[in-house]
Specification:
alpha+beta; 2 domains; 6 helices
Length: 254
């Protein structure tokens, strides 16, 4: 027989394990995404610093494409990047999309400025993706953004896990208390005189034993009530028979 204590312990353990697993999975997935974003932002910052140093040493952007192509890992960092001068002319298109492709309307705000001596020498435009938004030059540093996003992901994951654990807890609670509700209804019916009520024995724990004892008690009470009614009927019949005989004699004497 598995006791109710063991069932409740296993139920709480299951809910806790599911909640912890969900938090671990969701945080892991979100952390991986945010870490990729952090690494991408770090690479972009390194590329912008290299472009700044190049312009400081050369005074123009001539030959910058050769420098990027021949300098690992800048050749990897600069993939799909557009280098645009302040007038909006594309100086370098590493993504090979062609100069006839128009720039997005918000290309200035979506780009990272390359500033030299307080002046903007060009803009580095990186293509945004689902895990890599456009750069925000005036925003917090990448490491701060990474910590904030991971913290937000952990809180969101904990909230989702708590909600799922709550739903599982409600389901388990309804499952465990269903026999008690059935016993309550059967007891109320028996109190109204409706004997013979039976409940379904769904388990072999303490609640199952209680349901079995209730069924046995109710059956005994119904049997006793039936015997009492039968005995009352027999006594009434036995009493009516001599009275009928005496009444017949009395009528005959008259």
């Amino acid at each position: 027989m598995r006791s109710l204590t063991v069932k409740l312990t296993l139920a709480f353990l299951l809910i806790g394990a599911i909640g912890a697993s969900l938090v671990a999975v969701l945080v892991g997935l979100r952390t991986r995404s945010e870490f990729d974003r952090f690494v991408s932002q770090r690479d972009q910052d390194a590329l912008v610093q290299a472009l700044t140093a190049y312009y400081q040493s050369h005074g123009n952007w001539s030959g910058v494409d050769t420098m990027l192509a021949d300098t690992p890992p800048l050749n990897f960092y600069s993939r799909s990047m557009k280098l645009i001068d302040p007038a909006g002319t594309v100086l370098l298109d590493s993504g090979k999309t062609g100069s006839d492709v128009p720039l997005p309307p918000d290309w200035r705000t979506a780009s990272t400025p390359v500033q030299v001596n307080g002046q903007t020498a060009a803009y580095a435009l990186f293509p945004p993706t689902s895990s890599q938004p456009a750069a925000r030059p005036n925003g917090p540093s990448p490491d701060v953004q990474f910590r904030e996003r991971v913290t937000s992901a952990a809180l969101m994951s904990a909230g989702i896990a708590a909600l799922i654990a709550l739903l599982l807890g409600l389901l388990l609670a309804r499952t465990l208390t269903r026999p008690l509700r059935e016993l309550t209804l059967a007891t109320e019916a028996m109190a109204r005189g409706q004997l013979g009520q039976q409940v379904v024995v769904r388990s072999r724990d303490e609640i199952g034993e209680l349901a079995h004892s209730f069924n046995q008690m109710n059956a005994d009470l119904a049997r006793a009530s039936q015997l009492r009614k039968q005995m009352t009927a027999d006594l009434a019949h036995d009493l009516r028979t001599p009275l009928s005989i005496l009444r017949g004699y009395t009528e005959g004497l008259q």
